Amino acid sequence: MTVVQVHFDLPVEHGGWPPVTVESLRAEPVGDDVVRLSGPPRFAFGVSSGDLIRVERDADGRHWATELVAWSGRCTIRVVPFGSGPLRGSLQRVLDAFELFGVCGEGIQQYGIVTLDVPADADLTGVQRVLRTGARDGWWDYEEGCVGDAWLAAAPG
Q1: Element (H, E) at 104
Q2: If we measure between CA atoms, which residue out of 12, 14, 9, 11 comes closest to residue 25?
Q3: Among residues 29, 51, 70, which one ends one of the domains?
Q4: Co-location of 50 and 82 in the same domain
Q5: What is the reported pTM?
Q6: Which residues of the chain have pLDDT under 70?
Q7: 65-84 burial by CB neighbour count: b if 16+ within 10 A, else e?
């Protein structure tokens, strides 16, 4: 299997977030100008693991994302555990909290963030309940990096 790096330009918002201006993700070519993302993004919005992305190559041969061709149905959620909270900033404990739902992810210690990769067939209501409870109880803050209609429909009233 051939693997390429796909680069995403990231606009830096107020407060200097995200902390990078370009995110590079591993992907598998599936056509001349289309790749499938191999994992969830850490900072890019609107894409998830398994998505098909159209790319353009620059003069140096690097692949740059230009548009989403097809969504995989997976959701990307980013969680930042509070160092002063019950988890004491533990990225692993965030991952452990979602393992029951078949959700995997990756912690990035440098930025104190966990990227959750939520499968399309996961218990979305359960995942959201844990996210909201953790936010309410001071464990973490979170953002929805890429969600779809099923995620929105699973949200309580």
Answers
A1: strand 104-108
A2: 9
A3: 70
A4: no
A5: 0.93
A6: 157
A7: beebbebbbbbbbbbbbbee
